[in-house]
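sorry to bug you again but im stuck and you know this stuff better than me. below you get a single protein, a line of residues and a line of whole numbers that encode the local backbone shape. mainly i need to know what kind of three dimensional shape the backbone takes. anything you notice is useful, everything is just below:

***
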Amino acid sequence: MLRLTPREKSSLLFEGILTVIMLGLINLAIFTIVQGFLFDHPEMQVGFFVIRQSFDLGPVHTRIVGYHQVLVLIFIVVDIWVLVWRLKRRKRQYQLDHIIRELHYIAQGHLDHRIDFSLTGREQDVITSVNALVDSAVKSMEEEREIEKSKDELITNVSHDLRTPLTSIIGYLGLIENHQYRSEEEIVEFANIAYTKATQMKTMVEDLFEYTQVQFNDRQLEFQPVDLTQLLDQVAASFELTAQKQGIQIQTHFTLSPLMIEAEASQLGRVFSNLVANALKYGDGATVIKLSANVMDDEAIVDVANDGVPIPARSVNRLFERFYRVESSRSKQTGGAGLGLAIVQSIVEKHHGQVSVMSNQALTTFTVRLPLKQGVSDETKA
């Protein structure tokens, strides 16, 4: 509750005394005018006599009130109303002054400050709106700083990751350029190494481009009905040849077909393509990749599992971090930038879904949960 300062209390007291004096003078003036009017018009006194008679009580015929008593009663009621109205108005003005001072203080850069006193009526609505506005502004500024920080980290990490293969490319091509080779076989070997490193750089750049498109693009997704089972079949077919070369079988299992959800097909295709590609790259010793889909409540649940070497427990919770790799040596061989799973998480979140991973000796399973209808998920969360 707002406490008035001693100065404001004194001013309020002075306002009340001044109002009482002013009203007293007005009452005296009105009373004098009425008396003068009745003195100049004696016939009007008959009417007041009737009023007095109407207030007689009992056989004693005691007159309770006269015209001057009626005027005094009216004066008291009106004066009390005016006095309360003026004091309330003055107090409200002081309250608004306090709110304005708090606003000036916040505007000076003290964004961690909030108006902590409470009032009643519209003033409290103003306080609530101001605090909500400041909270919203602070949140927007923090999000903006996070975006800028994220972009800076992205540039730093990409520069670091690209520098290594680029240095190798320049080094081996420099050997060829300066004729620092002993035979044509060495030229071919140096060229092959440079080509491999260039391919890794191309993969990194493509991953980076895909991640920035997903993460920093404010475009709203265009949700349309999509048959999830058909989409998963297409993803499985697109990786079938690559999987056969690695001795891996891709299996699909659907409890419901068709399984219709609201999504953007191209974006969702990226999700499952990245998960299958991740299993092919890092699922050492895997013999099978399983894609399964079912429905639970208002969600579609898709599992992408492989029976390769399990992910270390210390790494499971960090898999979806940008540029995180379970083993740097494996990433060097595959040329990954550590962005594939971060892209998966970003797209799934834009579909108002969730992605998680569980790994044990039997299977490493990535689970994607997606709402069947986009509106249902939002309402449930609200």
User: Anything to note?
Assistant: The chain has three domains: 6-119, 148-215, 224-381.
